[in-house]
């Protein structure tokens, strides 16, 4: 299995900008053919169940709308990933668990039964993931699908926003059995690179994680947290952020404070969405299809 030719950074960013919320399909760096079959999965992120406020007057409606859209897909995805912030933060441990049980009941209406969940800081930052693990299970793990190795990393249960030495050691051990050209997908909540640390859009030890991933030539990262579509490249590793299902946030450094984009009554749900990711074998590529939330 050999790595595919990589476009340069300028070509990649041009392709990403041209996606415009539609399909981004390219022989991107960080991807190569695997011995399995074509497949696709769905990424949902930043549900923030329990949020109330002007940035989304339909706070209890957007997740059901997205679930209905996924259930109506002509062909079901192989699985669904949730990249964190399933619930909105609360200081009350009982309320935290109630929100998690409610969002779990919503997720259980998905017709796709294979789901992979991980926490965001709103779920896990106040209790180091205790409630999340009670209701949803482990905060980090790995699995294989059609020749692709997936790793869910937890960079939120530590209130300082670190992956931590123990989990990095686990990651190194988990990847050690793989050839260096194996296709690897990392799923996480915060960006692993310093997108905009002033807004907490970074992982304190993300550089250490990326260093451990660097020997592997075909790595792609899918994350959430920043509530907007964003594409970035660090070396040969490609990073894709997903939109939120609750409220969009402004581009990094575009304004003094990190405040939700105001609700637009003339264009409700603008900036909210979810993503399909298709893994193609011939020619080898990832196709990202950005889906809006619609009434």
Automatic annotation (TrEMBL):
Molecular function terms, GO-annotated: hydrolase activity
Top-level taxonomic group: Bacteria
Signal sequence extent: none
Domain Calcineurin-like phosphoesterase: 41-228
Pfam family, one: Metallophos
InterPro entries: Calcineurin-like_PHP, Metallo-depent_PP-like, STPP_CPPED1, TAT_signal, TAT_signal_bac_arc
NCBIfam families: TAT_signal_seq (TIGR01409)
Xref: PANTHER family: METALLOPHOSPHOESTERASE, CALCINEURIN SUPERFAMILY (PTHR43143), SERINE_THREONINE-PROTEIN PHOSPHATASE CPPED1 (PTHR43143:SF1)
Protein name as catalogued: Twin-arginine translocation pathway signal
């Amino acid at each position: 299995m050999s790595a595919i030719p990589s476009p340069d950074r300028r070509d990649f960013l041009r392709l990403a900008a041209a996606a415009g919320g539609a399909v981004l399909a390219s022989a991107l760096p960080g991807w190569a053919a695997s011995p399995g079959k074509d497949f696709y999965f769905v990424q949902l992120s930043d549900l923030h169940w329990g949020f109330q406020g002007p940035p989304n007057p339909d706070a209890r409606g957007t997740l059901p709308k997205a679930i209905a859209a996924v259930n109506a897909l002509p062909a079901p995805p192989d699985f669904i990933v949730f990249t964190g912030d399933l619930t909105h933060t609360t200081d009350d441990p009982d309320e935290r668990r109630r929100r998690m049980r409610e969002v779990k009941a919503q997720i259980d209406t998905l017709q796709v039964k294979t789901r992979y969940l991980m926490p965001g800081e709103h779920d896990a930052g106040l209790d180091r993931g205790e409630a999340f693990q009670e209701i949803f299970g482990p905060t980090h793990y790995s699995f294989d699908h059609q020749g692709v190795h997936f790793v869910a990393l937890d960079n939120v249960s530590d209130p300082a926003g670190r992956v931590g030495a123990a989990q990095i050691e686990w990651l190194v051990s988990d990847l050690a059995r793989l050839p260096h050209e194996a296709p690897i997908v990392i799923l996480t909540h915060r960006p692993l690179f310093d997108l905009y640390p002033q807004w907490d859009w970074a992982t304190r030890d993300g550089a250490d994680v990326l260093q451990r991933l660097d020997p592997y030539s075909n790595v792609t990262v899918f994350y959430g947290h920043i509530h907007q579509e964003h594409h970035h490249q660090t070396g040969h590793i490609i990073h894709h952020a997903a939109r939120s299902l609750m409220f969009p946030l402004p581009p990094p450094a575009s304004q003094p404070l990190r405040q939700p984009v105001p609700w637009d009554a003339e264009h409700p749900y603008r900036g909210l969405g979810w993503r399909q990711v298709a893994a193609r074998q011939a020619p080898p590529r990832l196709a990202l299809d950005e889906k809006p939330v619609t009434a």
